[in-house]
Amino acid sequence: MSVYGKRGALMFALYSLACTVTLIFDNGKIFAFIISAVSLAISTVAVIKAEKKAVAVVFAALCVIAPLLGLVCGTLHTGKDPAAKKYADGEEHAITAEITRAIYEKQFGSLYYAKVSDVDGEKADFYIQLEFSYLPELVIHEKTEIRAVLSEPSGSDAALLRSKGVILCAEVDGFLSVGDGGRLTLPEKINSFLAGIFDKTIGGDEADFAGAIFLGNREMVSQKIKLAFRRSGTSHLLALSGLHISVLAAGLEFALKAARVKKKIRIAVSIPVTVMFALITGLSASVLRSAIMLVIYFVAQLIGEEKDSLTSLFAALALIITFRRYAVWDAGLWMSFSATLGLILFSDRLLPHFAPMTRKTYSRAKKFFRAGVKYVLGLLSATVIATLFTLPVTYLLFGGISIISPISNLILVPLSQVLLYLLALLCVFFNVPFIGAGLAFAAKRLILLICRLAGLFASPSGVYISIKYPFTPYLIAAALIFVAVIVFVPKINPRSVLAVSVALCMAFAGCGAVMYKITENEIYAVAVSERSSDAFGIVYRGRSFVIDVSTGGFSVPYSAVTETSGYAACETDVLILTHLHRYHAATLDRLCGYFKINKLLIPAAESVADSEIIMNILAIADENGVQTEFYNRRAESTVACGYMKILLPEYTLLKRSTHPVITFSVYLGETQAMLYSGAGAEETDDEKVYSAALVFFGAHGPVRKQRIDTGRCLSAQSIIFSNEKVSAFADGCDSPVIISERGGKVTIKIK
């Protein structure tokens, strides 16, 4: 039917997708117009050569409209950014905003997304992130007035915020509620109603888990549970995705078939239910992708067309990015797309075809056994395929994979599917005596079992390994070539596939072992800086130490911990706080959702405010199983790792400032390998000589009044400045490393 073969819709999707994505980049419009011109040329040729002119004209029109649609939608989105960014000028602004989503709510720190309607009396239309050092108890759609300094997202949070359409950030000390911005939408009301059912019938942390896996409300799930699922390779079960919506759609289809409902009526019911479920769960990119593909599938059945999963996938991706441009930065979308692409390409090729299950000669027991084996093999293969196809995204965005995920998914995925059906039935029969209570009891026990199993899989050290090693890109490239061969070569010997897969795994393990042996006596330092916040990640003999010299924010220590994963096993052995800040408890809580932190070193309290902060920190550490230890920041003390030792942070107060000057050192034996010198350190000791191989002049602390004498760095192989403002105080330095004030990092090997 199509002049492009059997996938005219696929061409339409790809053109639209390409044009929209190009607008993200500088000079993107030029590329978009080139794509449009090529599309027009191909369409013209297709019309000329086509036998069926009417069909050719239709598809040619579609291929011309697609890039134009991508251009228009992309331009409309990008036009809003400059208007909002003009307020990130370092000045305080009066802002009126409507709360749209609660991201993180704790007594000692909260995050919200809000839609701005007014800035300094001028109408505005953009989204911001509001950060509180306490729990303001704001509700969705509540309007609030604040005064705050706005800043552009930077560091590790930038991509995540960008994917949600959040353009600016604000730290808020106080606010004034001015009334309701609007009523809850129907999907929001249904979500709230169903969450209330779980709270009433299941209760406790288990209700929060049910809300996450069934409704997409993962904000209330504890960081300990999030970490367990991440390390066990099953975090996709917590993030509502195509798996969940597909399972529920299959259950609905089964129920309607059992009730002997006609096919067209089943489809007429399934389409609005799918759309409504996507709306109720918040229209996350992965859910939206699955919903669009399901709707296309139902429509194809209705009009009698064959299913084309590949076209549906690209059409869904094109629609999402065209009408929700910020989804380009959504990690969940690309993980979902990559995994689904792999399953589509390999679904009919990876597993050997079993003999028909309907043979009359088979006993019921044999049929059941063969069905069970096929299900297990299918689940294992799906896990392997999804892991393989998401490797490039994982490498770029996360840097670690769980080696136990095939086993954990084999057990937890079926249990989660059962849980989804239990929760769906509970939503229907919660008011029915005995039945509702029985379903709630079963769901609660199953949730406890799932969480305990996830914790068991995640507990051993080494189950979550880094793929940020220098050799990993080459192995990923080899794996992708291997995949391409399997996809495009008609007949492949299964034994060859198995042999190459084992060889790639052995190559990864062998390269990892060699790398560890080579680097075991070297120190790698990861310096991270953003405005007045610094952090250091230090890796030695596979152990990771992170020193946080920040204002308590999340972005800087997160980046430091993440970057050490290229040289350590995705665990932080010791996290050291140089001083106490009101945001540190919330930051630690969020970090524990991403990384396993074994020990936390905290400076002893020196005031009532310090004691309150420490109390919150200790509560979070205890909840997440983090060992804590105190040190005296006014006396020299160390933490040792074999031949390496870290002189714990000390600080000195200058007469002209209430902010401390922070310094710390790293030694190899008696040799000073690294020195961190905070802002204003030149005023504390005029005779000090910096003998370290790596010297970092930081931005945290009082503003400098004296110039930096880099001539004292007699043994320095590298000198790092936190930003341009700090480097401006230097008296001259050969080839310094300057980290941008907007956020940046550098990794240096200390010889």
Q: Could you give a short description of this structure?
A:
The chain has 751 residues and is of the alpha/beta class. It has five domains: 8-78; 82-180, OB fold (Dihydrolipoamide Acetyltransferase, E2P); 189-349 and 407-461, no CATH class; 472-519, no CATH class; 523-750, Metallo-beta-lactamase, Chain A.
End-to-end CA span:
66 Å
Spatial arrangement of strands, main beta sheet: 14-13-12-11-10-9-22
Number of domains: 5
Q: What fraction, in percent, of the residue positions are helical?
A: 40-55%
Question: In what range is the share of β-strand residues?
Answer: 15-25%
Rg from Cα: 28 Å
Largest sheet: 7 strands, mixed
Decide which structural class fits the backbone. alpha/beta
What's the total count of β strands? 22
Would you state the CATH class of the largest domain?
A: Alpha Beta
Number of helices: 23
Within the CATH hierarchy, at the fold level, what is the topology of the largest domain? Metallo-beta-lactamase, Chain A
In CATH, the architecture of the largest domain is 4-Layer Sandwich
Low-pLDDT ranges: 1-6, 353-358
- Tell me, rounded to a whole number, the average pLDDT: 79
Molecular shape: globular
